[in-house]
What we know:
There is one protein chain. The protein is mainly α. It has 7 helices and no strands. The protein is elongated, with a radius of gyration of 34 Å. The two termini are 32 Å apart.
Amino acid sequence: MLWLAFAMMTAAVSLALLSSLSARHKERNPRASDIAFYRSLLVETDDDVRRGLVAAEDAAASRAEIVRRLLASVDTVPKDPPHASARPGRICAVLAVVVVLPFIALALYLRVGAPHQLDMPASRRTGAEFNPTDVIPKIGAHRAADLNDGHGFQAIAVKQDAAKKKASRGKCAV
């Protein structure tokens, strides 16, 4: 049953990776941020003239320089599609995610894991029956040795709460 959970997690990771690889990124102008910046500088220059912070002749020189840089940014936009060479790489990545990743996960599980063994209860693994009520006196002794240890109080509360729930379930079943 555990192998099914791992297979579902592997499928979820594969789908997450595939969705990001298959997302169509719209081709945008690589200089769009530069163009927006220079346009905002033009607007800001006009605002400075309107508020009287910059003289009109200084603003005209500044506008001419901004427009020159704006035109240079527009002229340097590449004409060929930028993602033409990325297609083979994307196909290889998709194949790696769909084929190689699950294959590696399965190979590791078969090598390191133990798919042919059944689950074992804690009592068979440790060789002794685990009883939470036997642990409470040990935790109490540890807490008595160090009264400043808050973990002892927390552990006792958790164990006593579990014991109370177990006892209340036993009463309801009768």
